[in-house]
């Protein structure tokens, strides 16, 4: 697999949709995650990230504008459960949180969910979980998608990464590129470079997302030894 530059990956794709990045900072000190949302419709673009507890939620920016399919665009993308940070592109964040609270694994928790029922796109559900304990760090990523556009079947893939290497991570997003219908992500999560500095990483991500379609970005660096974290949030709507 080729180690990819995230700036190049993002700048070359006008519409990757929603995306999750998880990895380890170049200095090896931090567990890193990023989550971004994009939008083509007025409803999808009428959103911001706001802080909720130790995570975030999506909210309408203009509360007077009618939201279409709010159940798909208003949710909690990030929640923290003990030493685990859960990041997803939908309300399956709560499914994973509740399942892991009951002793289920990340993969088991997602078995009750499928892709989004937004025909004809059938947007994949992408999810990730980061686990930090006693100075050790591991993460997993998942994608649930229709069977090559056929909604009669759901294909489920989980990828686990133990003791990730400093300066490396993985990137998964909902769509291969823009289109009608939107083509679902294909293959394993992309192997990508992770920066040492949170502000440089945040700026790189935001500046390379398509200017017309980007909506919001969340970035978090978690100290692997102490569990303390720094967070950056950028909303296009201000």
Structure description:
The chain has 238 residues and is α+β, with helices and mostly antiparallel strands. The chain has a single domain (6-235), classed as Glutamine Phosphoribosylpyrophosphate, subunit 1, domain 1, CATH 3.60.20. 16% of the residues lie in helices and 41% in strands. The chain contains six helices and 13 strands. It has helices spanning 6-11, 42-45, 70-73, 92-101, 106-109, 198-208, and strands at 19-24, 30-38, 47-52, 55-60, 78-81, 84-88, 125-133, 136-147, 150-162, 168-173, 190-193, 214-223, 229-235. It is globular.
Which structural traits does this protein have?
five-stranded antiparallel beta sheet; single chain; alpha+beta; 6 helices; 16% helix
Short structural description:
This protein has 238 residues and is an alpha+beta fold.
Topology:
Layout: H1 6-11, E1 19-24, E2 30-38, H2 42-45, E3 47-52, E4 55-60, H3 70-73, E5 78-81, E6 84-88, H4 92-101, H5 106-109, E7 125-133, E8 136-147, E9 150-162, E10 168-173, E11 190-193, H6 198-208, E12 214-223, E13 229-235
Antiparallel strand pairs: 1-2, 1-10, 2-12, 3-4, 5-6, 6-7, 7-8, 8-9, 10-11, 12-13
């Amino acid at each position: 697999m080729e180690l990819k530059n995230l700036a190049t990956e993002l700048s070359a794709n006008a519409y990757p949709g929603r995306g999750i990045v998880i990895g380890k900072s170049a200095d090896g000190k931090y567990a890193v995650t990023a989550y971004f949302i994009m939008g083509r419709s007025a409803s999808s673009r009428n959103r911001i990230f706001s802080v909720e507890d130790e995570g975030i939620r999506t909210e309408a920016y203009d509360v007077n504008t009618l939201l279409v399919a709010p159940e798909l665009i208003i949710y909690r993308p990030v929640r923290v459960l003990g030493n685990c940070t859960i990041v997803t592109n939908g309300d399956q964040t709560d499914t994973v949180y509740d399942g892991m609270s009951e002793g289920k694994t990340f993969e088991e928790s997602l078995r009750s969910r499928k892709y989004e029922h937004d025909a004809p796109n059938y947007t994949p559900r992408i999810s990730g979980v980061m686990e930090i304990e006693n100075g050790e760090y591991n993460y997993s990523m998942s994608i649930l998608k229709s069977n090559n556009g056929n909604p009669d079947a759901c294909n489920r893939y989980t990828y686990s990464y133990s003791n990730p290497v400093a300066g490396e991570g993985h990137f998964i997003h909902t769509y291969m590129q823009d289109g009608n219908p939107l083509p679902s992500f294909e293959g394993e999560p992309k192997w990508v470079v992770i920066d040492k500095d949170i502000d440089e990483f945040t700026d790189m991500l935001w500046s390379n997302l398509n200017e017309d379609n980007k909506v919001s970005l969340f970035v978090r660096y978690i100290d692997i030894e102490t569990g303390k974290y720094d967070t950056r949030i950028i909303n296009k709507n201000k």
